[in-house]
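Hello again,

I reread your note about wanting to compare the complex against the isolated chains. To keep things tidy I'm splitting this into two emails, and this first one only covers the full assembly. Below are the input lines as submitted, including protein chains and any nucleic acid or small-molecule components. They are followed by the predicted structure of everything together. The single-chain runs will come separately.
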Amino acid sequence: MSNIIEIKKLVKTFYGAGEPLSILESLDMSVEFGTKVIILGESGCGKSTLLNIIGGLDTPTAGIVKVGTYDIANLNEEQLTEYRSSFLGLVFQFHYLLKDFTALENVMLPMYMRGASKKQASERARQLLCDVGLESRLAHLPAQMSGGERQRVAVARALVNDPKLILADEPTGNLDPKHGANISDILFSMVEKYGKTLVMVTHDVSLSSRGDISYKLQNGQLVNYES
Amino acid sequence: MGLKKVFPSWLLYVARRFSRVDRTGHSSVTGSLSSIGIAFGVMTLIVVMAVMNGFQSGSINSILEISSYHVRASIKDSSKFTNSNLDPAKISDKLSENSLVSSVTPFVEAQSLITGTGGRESVGLLRFVPPNILKKDAMLSNQLQMISGNFLDNPGTVVLGYLLARSLGVKPGDTINMVAMSGDSTVDLFAQDRVVTVSGIFACNFDEINSSFAFLRLDDSSKFLGDSVQPLYGVKLYKPENASRYIAEMQKQMSDLSITFESWENYNRSFFGALRIEKNILMLLVFLIFIVVAVNIFNSMRRMVYERREEISVLSALGSTKDTIQRIFLLQGFRIGLAGALPGFLLGLFLSVRMDTVFELVASISYGVQYFFLMIVSPSKAAWLYANPMFQYYAQVPAQPRFGETAFITLFGIFSAVVASWFASRHILKLSVAEVLSDE
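Full-complex prediction:
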């Protein structure tokens, strides 16, 4: 099976007022199509930075980051936009739903942005929201939903464009254990149902058993994690 | 690049939603104030320009039809003419031999210090014209309204502008004395009989003419200015803009004769230039309204962009370029501009076209309110209350809205809002999505 992610000698250094801060140091990583990868690590170890670089939201200081056919470090803004809208689904720790849009509108928007008709996007969004158990909440605004429901909307939104890769940045981090477990169940079942590749970063070690491979990020490098 | 590509349907969808929220939410006040400011600016500019056009065109028409003519022809060297050819009627006929010409009038011009009743003095411009000129020159008779007496029906009479007559303290039937005269090289200035009777008083749209012009009969000119006086010839064309063409054609046709021509544009260059400058300066001053409104839009839009930075970052993460997202805010600016410029345009146009109705209405309301309170406070005085005559004056202000100017002002109202939005939303291009999302 071929690799969907191929990272070689990735370096990320933050330059601020004080000493430069190296977060990722010569990091290598390969992910095969259809696998579920869990990356564990303490707060501030660089998990989100790694995910942002893979998602094209941040740029590497050095190294090669290839996702599918995309060479992330060398894409211009238009190509990055195309990459994010067609290849990626993003789920963040916070839901980041648009507060003036209903659940249905939030989910359909990425597909509508890609050029689908409003009707097509709406039908697809409705189906995904039913999949995550929110068929009764389609017309509700984020402010009218619970934290767990909002995160389920975010999961549905990540899948609407039928991406190859789902990047999840601590999707349960803002939820209580019960709702967190519920979101994890939904996310893993959706990934399995639609045959997606998942890279999830979390500090919840209990999730390591849910992945095909688990890594721990420490000292700027990935090491295999055995639960 | 097609419009659909610049403003894809999802962008309009998001912009509509943002603007609906902003119309009802926290930004509604600043957005509405900006629109009201633009409406006020557009309306004021349209009315001011229309009124200026009206006043200016009244003045310009009076100048062209009464004072300067469309083309002035003068004999430069009378030695090139035989005596019979110097007959003004013959020269007029020659100058009329062109299809562009409406009328040709021989006239003599001179200046004089005039004394009227009780020794009141004023400087006047004497214009000796054929006594039947009002019948021959329809455009002149349109501009020049006789408000009392008649027009030069007897020799030795004069018709004065009403302001000149007022300053001399004379009315039809009174006599005036022309104390001293001056003129150009064709005028001999050997005045003998300088007393003339006022036969009528006229008024036109240009007060400079009303306060200085005195019309006398052309056949009286030799009595005041000597026998050698050579008249000038005022040519009226069907279309004043054909002056240059007429001059070129006549110069070719009359090349053997020493006649010089001067177009109205040339003759009035400094005056028309001053009118243009006056209008431009006024326009510039009223345009300041748009600058104030644009600053207001800039500030409110900056705040809006800051408040929506999370949503901007999410849209970017979901697959939109930042300059596409910036267009959402440009559409917001366009909406604010359109919401102001359109009513401003309609109100401005209405005020310009129905100036009389509006001011009569204001006069009635003002009178009604005063009458109401006077009846409460002092009913006996109510009988002495009259409508304010200033409103009647305003109601008669000539307004001429012009399509080009009106369209420009309206579009500028929208444009100023869009430009302010563009400057305010440039910040979007500098946003780091990862930083904004991790900050939140």
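For quick reference: The interface with chain B takes residues 48-49, 52, 55, 57-58, 77-78, 81-82, 84-86, 90, 92, 94, 96-101, 105, 109-110, 112-115, 118, 157, 161 of chain A (CB under 8 Å).

B.
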